[in-house]
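The protein record now logged underneath.
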Amino acid sequence: MIRQDDLKELLSVDAGQGVIVSLYMNADTTLETSETIKKQARALMKDANCPAKDFKAIENYLNFSHDWGKPGLAVFSSAELDFFRAFPIAIPFRNRIRLSNKPHVKPLAHLLEHYAHYGVIVVDRTEARFFEYHLGELQSTGGASGEDVRKLKLGGGSARSGRTSSATGQRGGQGGRHEEEVVQRNMRELSSKANKFYSLRPIRRLFIGGTNETVAQFREQLPKQLQSQIAAVFPLDMNTGEHELRAKALDLMAQANLEREEKLVKTMITSAAKGGNAVIGLDATLRTVSEGRVQTLIVSDGYRSPGYHHQSSNLLAARPGETAAVGDDEPEKVEDVVEAAVYRTIEQGGKVEIVSDNSQLEDAGRIGAILRY
């Protein structure tokens, strides 16, 4: 599993004139055999002219060390630096390889931003189960139980005769009130226990499963902090197994991310068109990255472009002429200036969004940014 400290380490690695191999794989053995996945990895490395020592190091890892129970894999190798890191992850990647002087971190940055630390609650009228996940893997569980909810039988033979309650005019009126009171007490107790469980864990999103009525009652009792983190609610049986629950939560997470990305891209494009705190297109985006103004960098998945880095000013640009006014020294060529912008944004404390299959972003130049100012 990868954590934020691992990403920071990768950001610090620089091979200079050397090469670092970054390999991402969909290693899901429910879709392909491990031997087929190994062949795919070898084909990627061969097509990319992967250095022989790194080819061998990655091949040995896949043959002898990899945990094939995880459907995602990110590997970083530089024999020149004696550097090798492999991260089996519970979320699959799209197959890709990059050779550069720095690790290709865009897919990992996206993963850590949107699949890190989320919670799932399954609730019914008498109990709740709590789950904490990180990058698709279960971290901890908890739970709580309330009073049994039983229908209260009325005295005097009314239940047998079918008579209505004189107080309510409804069949079983006293029993209904008692039942509802117990449910409400349970919701307060269960929500309190949920707050205690998640207050000790750094969750960013929360999913709640159960019947529509019960989830609505439970949700009302949650503190505002947890309510603000709810990403989706969904129908689910209390006895659903953890494996099925985890898969359902990942599907919901992917859907929530898709909806959030669509809104984010639309907000960026609209703001840029109105002259607000947003820009679109490579030139404008690189300029604002160089100025340290980017709050959120938004990039189409797979977008790459060569560019330039002006050493004395630290300016990133798509063309060498754009750095002419800032110094006499010649800018150095950068194989992928988009990746350089990703690095710079993360180093400056900004966020990076990698967006797939968004036609609006493609039409806007495949890259843009929401600015701090």
Notes: Residues 242-273 form the longest helix (32 residues).
